Amino acid sequence: MARGSAVAWAALGPLLWGCALGLQGGMLYPQESPSRECKELDGLWSFRADFSDNRRRGFEEQWYRRPLWESGPTVDMPVPSSFNDISQDWRLRHFVGWVWYEREVILPERWTQDLRTRVVLRIGSAHSYAIVWVNGVDTLEHEGGYLPFEADISNLVQVGPLPSRLRITIAINNTLTPTTLPPGTIQYLTDTSKYPKGYFVQNTYFDFFNYAGLQRSVLLYTTPTTYIDDITVTTSVEQDSGLVNYQISVKGSNLFKLEVRLLDAENKVVANGTGTQGQLKVPGVSLWWPYLMHERPAYLYSLEVMIRGKGFDWPLLVKDFNLLRWLGANAFRTSHYPYAEEVMQMCDRYGIVVIDECPGVGLALPQFFNNVSLHHHMQVMEEVVRRDKNHPAVVMWSVANEPASHLESAGYYLKMVIAHTKSLDPSRPVTFVSNSNYAADKGAPYVDVICLNSYYSWYHDYGHLELIQLQLATQFENWYKKYQKPIIQSEYGAETIAGFHQDPPLMFTEEYQKSLLEQYHLGLDQKRRKYVVGELIWNFADFMTEQSPTRVLGNKKGIFTRQRQPKSAAFLLRERYWKIANETRYPHSVAKSQCLENSLFT
Ligand code: GCB
Question: How far apart are CA 451 and CA 534, in angstroms?
């Protein structure tokens, strides 16, 4: 909650919640409290990749039944991290199939003896399919990386004599199929003059390395047996009062009394309520407001943020947010999958607006638009909305990045996913990010905001920076004429190798990146007070991709290197963003935007 005499969450306008989530149960972020304890399981886990031909030896030999070291050699694997970059073994970097993680934990005695305590195992994310055993008992399965899942394991730990040690085994499969999100295909290469028997590769249709493993925290936490399972908060404003509508789901018993207290950032109670639903009123409210954002027009200026590797890392996270503030950026899209919950919390604290994107990336082939995928995609949106619905920073859901939206089947598919997402959260706009032609796109009729990726003078008309303004103007005018909807330029940029210089500019140099961005900015400035409501450059920092002749150690369109050092374009953007902020800054937002202490999150 924000600091101030009386403060409450309020997003960018009145929010009405008609949410009826399809998923059973909530997914609250675990927090310690007088009635809840947490035990982080981050650190070193035992690890083995199953290199057997069919990748199924672990199941055939039931590795989960005994300590992992008993069935063969293990290596140390840090959690959270992607397993790919940890060892010197190239086979592990490119591994496709099942990997096995194991960790033993000693539980506090109270957790195992006090039957009024629930013990929950929570996995922040496991990419991409996971099976979890506790003391050898099959406990939990989950499909899809990037989102949390959990199981009540009280029955397993509160049995008979004290189990002094709890053994958690997690098998994770990173294989992508036509029905996973993102989708992928396994291709067997059968020409024995070129490939050994059984040789296969995994094809992906997106531009980042398919990092995998336990990339976010694993933890155990407790609740009482009667417990709050979910909270849904929506907000609105009435004159100078903030209205906070809450809905609380309690599980475990009907015999409870619920007292609700709304705290500000200094833990002062600013409103009280009782019961599972109600409205709290905060007079003289000080609203959540994006960093450096004017009231009118609300303009988003930023970079797409692609997190390095995928192992959650606090120093990197704080560094990235310091860089965002240094730049004067006020928004990003979680391209191309939901980021860790801690990232979302930082966005709330730092006033960074989020377009929250699900892993609907790489929907490039007609066969990916099938009913099984559609059903899974909807389920993933349920998980995203369930996890992130209470973040004031989230202003829009994005259901996909660059699907083949010119296909009829994609039109129907996107229509269904967007409608489903709107039914989950009627309060926020929904979009997908398109790189199709305005006349051919079959999904655009269903979005609230048109998000466009285009790479003028990069992927075509190479080197011809002089064409950018014309082509950009044509793009905007065509789309706006057809749909009359707000438009965000959701990607633009140029591959740039830090330290490459050439004047006049040539592709891949820092000068070319700068000049390309400058040309785009001239084009954007023509429309930015009209219907273009945001510009997000691709990309915040360089990131790893699969190997290809068009990628030099990954994608180099960052304005920062992977080590977070600025390229020349970073200074250009910094100047632009602060200039826009100073042109448009809403007087009341100034003080709030400057200091961290005004954090909005508790
Ligand atoms: C795109 C994609 C993004 C790529 C980028 C590029 O349109 O959305 O994932 O990394 O282009 O650099 O090619």
Answer: 9
Choice among 131-135, 142-146, 157-161 with the minimum mean pLDDT: 157-161
User: Residue 581 has what pLDDT?
Assistant: 87
- For every residue of 291-350, DSSP letters joined together read TT--SSS--EEEE----SSSS--HHHHHHHHHHHHHHT--EEE-TTSPPPHHHHHHHHHH
Q: Is the CB of 491 under 6 A from ligand 1?
A: yes
Residue 557 Cβ < 6 Å to ligand 1 = yes
Rounded to the nearest angstrom, the distance between the alpha carbon of 207 and the centre of ligand 1 is 6
Catalytic residue from among 304, 341, 402, 535: 402
pLDDT digits (tens, 9 = 90+) for 517-543: 999 999 999 999 899 999 999 999 999
Any ligand 1 atom below 6 A from CB of 207: yes
What are the beta bridge partners of residue 127? 213
Q: Which of 204, 205, 206, 207 to mutate to test ligand 1, by most ligand atoms within 8 A of the CB atom?
A: 207
Task: Write down the residue that tokens 């007070």 correspond to.
Answer: 529
- For residue 561, the Cα-to-chain-centroid distance in whole angstroms is 21
Distance 551 CA to ligand 1 centre (A): 12
Please say if 402 is a catalytic residue: yes
Cβ atoms within 10 A of the Cβ of 108, count?
14
How is residue 273 written in tokens? 């309520």
DSSP class of residue 370 equals S
Q: Do 404 and 364 contact (CB within 8 A), yes or no?
A: yes
Q: Is pLDDT larger for residue 1 or for residue 30?
A: 30
Among candidates 151, 97, 101, which has minimal Cα distance to 121? 151
Question: Which residue in this structure is represented by tokens 């100047």?
Answer: 575
Per-residue pLDDT band for 585 (boundaries 50, 70, 90) equals low
- Alpha carbons 18 and 21: distance in angstroms, whole number: 9
- How many C-beta atoms lie closer than 10 Å to residue 389's C-beta? 25
Beta carbons of 261 and 274 less than 8 angstroms apart: no
Confidence grade of residue 300 (pLDDT, cut at 50, 70, 90) = confident
Tell me what the pLDDT averaged over the chain comes to: 91
| Strand 75-79 with 43-49, pairing | antiparallel
pTM: 0.93
Q: Are 394 and 428 in contact (CB under 8 A)?
A: yes
Q: Which two tokens stand for residue 28?
A: 């609250």
| Banded model confidence at residue 91, pLDDT cuts 50, 70, 90 | very high
How does residue 162 score in pLDDT terms, banded at 50, 70 and 90?
low
CA distance 369 to 386: 24
For 407-422, write each residue's pLDDT tens digit: 999 999 999 999 999 9
| Residue spans of alpha helices (H) in 109-235 | 109-113, 154-157
Best mutation site among 453, 458, 542 for ligand 1, i.e. most ligand atoms within 8 A of its Cβ?
Answer: 453
Q: List all residues 6 or more positions away from 461 whose beta carbon is below 8 Å from its beta carbon.
A: 467, 471
Residue 454 CA to ligand 1 center (angstroms) comes to: 9
